[in-house]
Amino acid sequence: MEVICVQKEAFYALFDKVVEHIESNRKDNKEKWIDGEEAMSILKIKSTTTLQKLRDEGKIRFSQPQKKIILYDRDSIMEYIEKHARETF
Fold first, then answer.
1. What secondary structure does DSSP assign to 50-63, as a single string?
2. Which of 6, 8, 40, 87 has a Cα-to-Cα distance from 49 of 20 to 30 A?
3. What is the pTM (predicted TM-score) of this model?
4. Where are the domains of the chain?
């Protein structure tokens, strides 16, 4: 068995690098911009009309890079949900 001694600072620096590497390679790394289907899934709605209404009223951010492609900002959807959360009594 071989034992390697490392200074405390070097160990934590190495540990931070390993964590950073693992986080950058995670499979569930969420995209910032999502399609309508995923947006509806997060919002728990089934109607594209409701999604369009939220978009038209400026309640959630969106981007339209092409005429038939609309992408939604995941963070704005989560903010919308949080904004409408009710506190417990």
1. HHHHHHHTTSS-EE
2. 87
3. 0.65
4. 33-84
